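Changelog-adjacent note: as of this version, every example in the card shows the full chain rather than a window. The one below runs 373 residues end to end.
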Amino acid sequence: MKIGVPKEIKILEYRVGMVPAGVRELVSDGHEVIVETNAGAGIGMTDADYKAAGAKVVAKPEQVFEAADLIVKVKEPQLHECAMLRKGQVLFTYLHLAADPKQAAALVKSGATAIAYETVTAPDRSLPLLTPMSEVAGRLSIQAGAYSLQKANGGRGVLLGGVPGVAPGKVLVIGGGVAGTHAAEMAIGLGASVTVLDRSVPRLRQINEMFGGRVRTQYSTKQAIDTLIVDADLVIGAVLIAGAAAPKLVSKAHVKSMQAGSVLVDISIDQGGCFETSRPTTHAEPTYVVDDVVHYCVTNMPGAVPRTSTFALTNVTLPFAKALANFGWREALARDPHLANGLNVHAGHVNHEAVARDLGYNYLSAADALKAA
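Full-length structure tokens:
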């Protein structure tokens, strides 16, 4: 099979879908890997590194898309990339379609088979290809929030850890999953006063045990958010419903009630955001202000640390990429129902129930898509 690795073109996105070690694995399996020139430059990998691993390096993205049977990326294809996809071609990348109706329409129109990292599952119901980026985003959210709290950056002028004689900053984490837990860990490490909200009491117990009581935990209700948000210096939105649009848990009224110069960081922005005032931003212009509250809503947060993020991501995507290459997408999905849960679009149909529901498409299950194929 021919596997293509194009250079990422989203604004200030430096990650790459495959490192030379992955290329070597696939070439050893008898496949051809085609890499766009400078695809790995953002993480310090040269064209020579890819060639040494056995890749063919080409000058233009069109050459990658035209030749490849399987495209491996990091971020969702931009609309002109969608236009280069074709029926029978497989795309393996993050998609986040519920928050991106234009991309969904373009993928449906292309007829390609699109498998989303973020909806591939594991036997324990976790999301193994989303987890490493959630870990990175959770940790980065505190760095970004601490920076945004500095007065020169529009914030209240609060040091999260405080100093002797001065109380630490208050951090509210909404969502106790992977991203929220890593955000809490970083905030605790800085010495902040941290509260985590979640709707799973067992998860709150785990968090309490994990941090030895150094974090406050509270069951998430509207009243809890009403009470806690007015005093928070930094609020992290880290809620996730796999494949679906994120619920809006922080309203415009909540934002108006917050202290001037406080900060909101919306990790859920890839799925539409969990703050009513959220809108996507980029690393070029990461923040904006609503009602004197700083909002950080970068849609590719892990792209700020591309080397760490790329290795963390490709460690978990490579086995699935090898399965798709070695068996073809039909047999690979038939062999692995967890990989089959990643099927979002095939041959003009939407194959993930939450995406179909949120965007108004007819739903065709992955099982039915495989039967039809």
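Structural remarks: The chain has two domains: 2-120+306-372, 131-304.
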